[in-house]
């Protein structure tokens, strides 16, 4: 098996999709008709990958929402973050669709890419998170929006699984990014369903997340142990995705149990804390030579972990939990501010270079 990224081109920290003959033909026609190279798969891949900005921002909004419940933090902070997340989500999704992402064959080309296929799950995940957050304004509308996004997430995950089990990943090993559509998305769907008081749906989707976490988590971890040394440096940040399943799974379980931390909830906390310890030891291997948009892949694992830890510190009544919670939230928020600033500077440099 070839390591992820062996024969792909890195596009500003992301792995560009392999061009199938069909996609190449479409791009050639598109460029000849419009003279716009942005119709290429590289551009569409970057648009979807940049949705990690929206996902990370929504994750931070969720952490502030938990802080509102546990610490009395201002509600407007979470609302503002979800508003920014929604704006980024909408702009990038429109760009993706305008430049060929609305064609089913292009969507399939993206889904079938061994390095970046999982990133399409960003679209419904952000939608589900937003539906849950703003449900206090109009519950029925939020439920309908959730239904659309949850079905979209299920279709993406099912299509990916069908592709994988029929040999679609024969040329590349599994990496932790694949946990996002088949494990994290069902857990997020479950947590959102509990928020929307859809208890049966929450139980159904939680079961899906548990099953495929046990199945794919075991396979991916085993593959990393056996072949992790072959993972190229640009792909190594995906290792932080290992943090997401215990974080969002724990949030889903506690949401279904109205914030109570029973033995299962404590088990999720233990899994998250141990996974964070593993990732801490991986930091030297995660370092990148320079800033690029791919740094945003770190954002949602950090935000989701913070969200669950805020709930756990409060629900378990850890000594000094209030001070620890505020320090944690402040540190993570400061890191996000630094990430926003670096992203804007990077975008400015890219525009400057493009105009030279």
From TrEMBL:
Q: Which domain of life is it from?
A: Bacteria
Task: Give the keywords, sorted.
Answer: Membrane, Transmembrane, Transmembrane helix
Identify its membrane topology class: Multi-pass membrane protein
Segments passing through the bilayer: 48-67, 73-97, 144-165, 202-226, 238-256, 268-286, 293-314, 320-342
Pfam families in the record: SLAC1
What the entry lists under InterPro entries is as follows: SLAC1/Mae1/Ssu1/TehA, Tellurite_res_ion_channel, Voltage-dep_anion_channel_sf
Compartment annotation: Membrane
Put simply, this protein is called C4-dicarboxylate ABC transporter
Naturally occurring in which organism (per UniProt)? Streptomyces dengpaensis
